[in-house]
Every structure is written in C-alpha cells, then in structure tokens.
Design brief:
The chain is α+β, with helices and mostly antiparallel strands. The protein is built from 21 helices and eleven strands. Strands 6, 7, 8, 9 and 10 form a five-stranded antiparallel beta sheet that branches. The chain is elongated, with a radius of gyration of 30 Å.
Length: 737
C-alpha cells in the first residue's frame, strides 16, 4: 500500500499539469451537468415493510386517481378580531380564493371550507385543502407561485392567511454561519501550517471535491430521486473530510521537507504514509455511510451513498491533486517549523525535537494514565445521561421557525381545531372479503370513537367498488407526542381483535403521523444490526491496519462513548431545551428519528479518521524500536497538532450548518459538531493514549496465526526505505514549474 501510494504521489507531483487538467475537467463536466439538470426537490418517501406503507400502496390500488402521493397544501384563514369567517364578506373572499386555487393545471381538487366542515366551532378560523396531481418534488414553481398569489389576494381583503403542507416546502438554506465555519477553518490552517499558501491548498482541494460531488448529485437528482437535503449533507461531510485529508498530507509533506528530502521525494513519502492513513480512514467513513442501506429506507440509503461518493472524491483528491498542487507551489510551501515571511518567518528550519504541547500532554497522560482514563470515561458518561430520555420522531410544520408561513398555519389550525388536527390518522379498512362491507366500515368507526385521545372520527369514505374505505381520525394530542403514538398502536392492536371478526377485514393505519411512527420504529429495530455490521467491518479493517486486536477494540468502545455523549447533548438541547435560544431552537420536541443511526454512521467514520492518523504515528514509532510509552509521546509529537487542527476545522464546518433553515440539517450539524468535539479531544487525545500506556506491549499483541494470515498493508511506510533516493537536497529541477 505505502509503496504504491508513494509512486502515485511522486507521479502526481511530476505530472502535475496532467493531474490538474483531469480534475478541472471533472469539475467542469459535473458543473455543466448540474446546470442543465432540473432543481432538486423533496425526495419521494417510502418505508418498505411497514403498515403505513402497505396502507398507502393499498390506497393507490383501490382509489385510482386519488393522488395519494400528491403534494398537499392547507390554506388557513383567520378573521379579524371580533369578526367571523361566516360573515358574508369573508365567505365571499374565501370562495373567490378557492376558485383561484381550483384553476391550477396541476391541482387535483380543492376542498371548500364551508362545504367540507373546514370552519372552527367559534367561527374565527377556516381552511381550504388543496391536493395536487404530482408530488412536492415534481410540483412546478408556477403552481407554488399561484398558491402564494391566491393567499396574498385574500390578505389584501383583510384576512390573516397562512399556508401549510408540503407544497411550499423549499430547499433548505444553510445561512451565513456556514461561511463563518469555512473562515474558522482557514484561520486554523494558517496557524497550523504557518503559510497562507499551504493553508489554501486544503481549502481549495476540499472546495473542488465538494464542487464535483454536489454538482454530480444535482445532475442526478431528478433521475435518482435525490432529495434537497442530500446535497447539503454530502457537502457537510465532504467539506469536513476533504479539508482534513488534505491537511494530513500537506503536514506530512512539510515534515518530510524538514528532514531534508527532495520535494518530489517528500511528496511521494507524504502520500505513501499519511496517504495510507487517509485511504483507510476514508474506507471506514464509506463503510459507515453505505452501511445505512441496511435500514431499508430508500431516502436514507441515497443520502448515505451520495455522501460516501463525496468522501471517495476527497480521498482521491488528497492522493493526487494535493501532490500536484505542491509541485506547483514549489519552495513557497516551507518545511515544518519554518513560517512564511508574511507570518514572521525567515527562520532556519527547526527539527521537531523540541517538546511541543502535544509532547507535554502525552507525557502527562503516560505518567498518569489511570486518572486520565477515569476522568474521561466519567465525563462522557455524565454527558450521555440525557440520552436515556431519548424520544424519537420526525419533524413536521410545528418544528419550523415561527417566521415561516407553514409554522403559522400549523399554529392557527391548532388554535381553531386542536393540536391533533395537524396530524390526522388515516385508517384504511379493506373489507373485500366481508359479506357486508358497509356494516364493517361503520363498526370500525364506532369502535375507534371509543378509544382514548380521539377527538373526531369522520364517516367512512368508500371507493367506487365499495370494498375499501378510509376513515379520518383526529387525535386530541399533537402529531409528535407520545400520546398520539400510543393511539396509533391502540388502533393497530385492536384491529385484529376488537374491530372486526378474524379474516373479515384488514384495518391499517397510515398518514404522515403514522408514517413517522413507523420510520422511528424501523430505525430503532435497525440500529443494533447496523452497529454490528459497520463496527464489525471497521474492526476487521483496523486489525489489518494496526495488526492488533486490542487497539481496534479500544477504538470501537471509545466511539460508543463519544456517540452516546453526543446523543445526550442533542437530547439536552433539542428535547429538553437547554441552551435552545443560543442554538436557534424555537420548538423543542422528539429528536429526529434518523438522528441516532445517522450519527452512529457518520461519527464512527469520522472518529476512525483521527484514530488511524494518530495511532499509525504511534505504531510507526513502536515498530521502529521505541518503547510503548515513548512511542505514544513520539506519535503525539508529530500528529497531535494536526489532529487538533483537523478536529477544530471539522467542528467549525459542522457548526456552520446549525444556522440552516431546515430542522433536520440544523440538528445533524449540532450533533456531529458535538460528537467530533467529544471524540477528538476526550477519546482520541486522552482516553486512547491512556489505554495504550496502561496496556504497554500488550496493545500490539496479535496471534501468530492471524499475523501470518493478514495482508501486510504497510501503513507505516516501512517499505519506503528501499525508495529513498538519498539525494535529499537536489530539487532544483522540480521547483522550476
């Protein structure tokens, strides 16, 4: 591995024009494809194998043309203070609005509030439901504009008008905080690398990689049904790992220059050593992201694969484009220990023999490993305590910012019709095998009325064949509450026993609320198999990398600690409301059901980045003859500064997404930032050296039979000794370009 990458790095350095041309061409092709592709919308959502999806499919079959998967909108009207929506003037305004809405080319039907029971009991609030022929992803912008225009006309007539539903769901915005995150990354790179040019290389290559990845996703969004959040999450992860991987290679290149090597030789060795760590770190991230497919939720699978593709691009760029750009930079990228003149440089190169902060910290940990280990474990355990109260759900309009019309429509409907009106349950009764379907429909409706937490049950609406009907159930509680979830389970539990005789009919519960509940359950059920698969594969990969049993085991256990602590922080902020104002959380509630499994996947991959880069340096010192304790100190001497910088950069990038307008992106950004904080600075920088110091030589134990069976990937670069040119200072020809 190291020898192959060494040759690749030297080739990229020497053939930099060709390498740069390839990457520029790829960026241009991806950009052209994205420019000509339709804009990404909201991915179609399905959860195979669940009752809600089964009911949805049955509706498609038994109610053809009903647009069960079509976009929906609720136009909510509120009369001025002291007036009612039943007043003649307001009624005329609403009817005119309904007429305007009905004229859209993509509109399937519009429900008049005065004919469909859409006026509140006190008469102050009314709503009209709009159903479209196409999904929210396929809805034309002209239809959205017509919806907004109709609402604006009603506002001009004196009514308060807001619009809810998925018809207006827009591509989320990340806000200016993302730019701040990149700015922080730039400052950290300058401080770490001591040169504006050297600091600019990781940023430039990361932007190129994300540009190619996101443009490719945009170009394929319509074909592959990729949602609008897919590109945001891919850019979040791609930008973070792209900067980190490039930083690893550039910092190793500068260290090789400080040893007096020729620049092409330094580039080759940097790619052969740090590049090997990048390859295996990237593999763990890819395994974690692609492993999301075991959940069997297509949207999550697509998100994971798209993000994994961006990570692969980041790895390839670190191995090829970085050494090519180092060739262009020539002597302007200085050896380690030497700063540019602009930053107060001009000093002679200092060999990294002095005791830097990483060396002093590692020496302290090696002297007191047990105390550091206990303090780290207890601290993370305390942070993880809130995770025991984790409640899962999916965001709805109630979690939107109060500045949005969707949130205001949600609040108006809650005010006029009760909180449960925002999350109606659709009960589908399949009575195809019953002798008297009408009696079955009526009986099911009456039985549901007798359940707790039910405000209203609509009359059954049969299909043309009369063998299937839908019943709308309005809960008393809001959609995301545990009480509503209990009601869904109560209906399902009673469906096979209390509602109908065995085999007479099939009663299914669907709707957005039931779908969210099923997603949460499916994700809960998949979490353990996913952990076993991803951690198991990565564990085997790390055995090959470190040639040890205990080091990969320690890496996996440390990851579990950090991810539990991060989940505890997410619960404390987004569910309990701690620091909610600081984080821009306007509505606390259940944690997004995808959060735990997505965090497990992403954080595990990112945590292994630091594990691989830090521990390979420690192992490199160990295999070259140093004692275990001294190897830890040496590893930190060379890598602690870079790992710290990489972690700060990743935290800054993820924190930038906390400013997103999308609640899912906001929560994921916060969760990943906190997880990296815990994993990098507590687990990798404290617990890992403490455990290695306590284990001593046992940390590197491997059964002899397994040692013979494992391939030698040579991450430490032992095989590079044969490629040492010995001509360390003669690089005059290599810097002319």
């Amino acid at each position: 591995m190291a020898t192959f990458l060494y040759r690749l790095g030297r080739l990229a350095f020497r053939r930099r024009h060709f390498v740069a041309l390839i990457w520029v061409a790829l960026l241009a092709l991806a950009g052209i494809g994205a420019a000509g592709a339709p804009a990404a919308g909201n991915s179609s959502f399905s959860i195979p194998g669940t009752e809600a999806q089964k009911a949805f499919d049955l509706l498609e079959e038994r109610f053809p043309g009903s647009s069960a998967d079509g976009a929906t909108a609720r136009v909510v009207f509120k009369a001025p203070s002291g007036e009612k929506m039943t007043d003649a003037g307001h009624k005329a305004t609403v009817e005119k609005t309904v007429g305007e809405l009905s004229g859209g080319s993509e509109v399937a039907r519009v429900t008049d509030p005065y004919q469909g029971g859409g006026v509140s009991q006190d008469g102050t609030i009314a709503y009209a439901s709009v159903t479209y022929d196409v999904s929210g992803m396929e809805l034309e912008e002209s239809s959205r504009e017509a919806l907004k225009a109709a609402a604006e006309d009603a506002r001009e007539a004196g009514l308060t008008v807001e619009i809810g539903g998925d018809a207006l769901q827009a591509v989320p915005e990340t806000g200016s905080a993302e730019i701040i995150g990149i700015g922080v990354a730039a400052v950290v790179l300058v401080i770490t690398l001591g040169s504006l040019l050297a600091a600019g290389l990781p940023l430039l290559t990361a932007i190129v990689g994300v540009g190619i990845g996101v443009s490719s996703i945009t170009a394929l969004a319509s074909t592959l049904d990729l949602g609008s959040t897919t590109s945001i999450l891919a850019s979040m992860i791609g930008l973070a790992v792209g900067i980190d991987y490039a930083l690893f290679v550039v910092s190793r290149y500068r260290a090789e220059l400080a040893e007096g090597r020729a620049r092409d030789e330094a580039a080759g060795r940097a790619v052969g050593t740090a590049g090997s760590a990048v390859v295996f770190a990237g593999l763990t991230v890819v395994i974690a992201l692609v492993g999301l497919s075991v959940v069997n939720i297509p949207m999550l699978t697509k998100m994971g694969v798209a993000a994994a593709g961006t990570v692969v691009i980041a790895v390839l760029i670190a191995l090829t484009l970085i050494p090519a750009l180092l060739g262009y930079a020539g002597r302007r990228v200085r050896p380690a220990g030497e700063k540019s003149k602009l930053l107060g440089g001009g000093r002679a190169v200092k060999k990294p023999q002095r005791r830097n902060m990483g060396t002093r910290w590692a020496s302290f940990v090696v002297r007191r490993p047990l105390a550091v280990l206990l303090l780290g474990v207890i601290g993370l355990g305390a942070a993880a305590v809130p995770a025991a109260s984790l409640e899962l759900g999916l965001p709805d309009d109630g979690s939107q910012p109060v500045s949005t019309t969707q949130r205001r429509a949600y609040d108006l409907l809650s005010e006029g019709f009760g909180p449960g009106f925002n999350g109606p349950l659709v009960v589908v009764v399949d009575a195809k095998g019953a002798g008297d379907p009408q009696t079955v429909f009526k009986g099911v409706g009456e039985d549901i009325k007798g359940l707790d937490n039910v405000v209203n049950v609509s009359p059954a609406q049969p299909n043309k064949a009369g063998d299937t009907a839908t019943i709308t159930v309005i809960p008393e509680s809001k959609p995301s509450s545990v009480t509503t979830e209990d009601l869904v389970h109560d209906i399902r539990d009673a469906a096979g026993t209390d509602f109908v005789a065995d085999g007479e009919a099939d009663v299914l519960v669907t709707g957005a609320t039931a779908m969210n509940i099923d997603v949460s359950q499916k994700l809960n059920d998949a979490l353990v198999p996913y952990l076993v698969l991803v951690v198991g594969l990565a564990f085997l990969l790390l055995i090959v990398v470190f040639r040890s049993i205990l080091v990969p085991l320690k890496a996996a256990l440390g990851f579990l600690l950090s991810v539990l602590a991060a989940l505890g922080a997410v619960v404390a902020v987004y569910q309990w409301g701690w620091l909610s104002g600081l984080m821009g959380v306007e509505e606390t509630g259940p944690i997004m059901s995808m959060m735990p499994i997505f965090m497990v996947g992403v954080v595990f991959g990112l945590a292994m980045d630091y594990e691989v880069f830090l521990v390979t340096r420690i192992r490199e010192a160990y295999v070259h003859g140093e004692k275990p304790g001294q190897a830890v100190v040496t590893g930190f001497q060379y890598s602690a500064r870079v790992v710290t910088a990489a972690a700060v950069i990743m935290i800054a990038v993820f924190s930038g997404f906390i400013g997103s307008s999308d609640s899912m992106v906001k929560m994921i950004g916060f969760g990943l930032a906190v997880a990296v904080l815990f994993d990098a600075f507590v687990v990798r920088m404290a617990i890992v050296p403490a455990v290695l110091a306590l284990l001593g030589t046992k940390a590197w134990w491997l059964p002899k039979w397994l040692d013979r069976a494992l391939p030698n990937v040579d991450v430490e670069g032992e095989g590079l000794a044969a490629h040492d040119t010995g001509n360390k200072d003669d690089d005059r020809e290599l810097v002319k370009a």
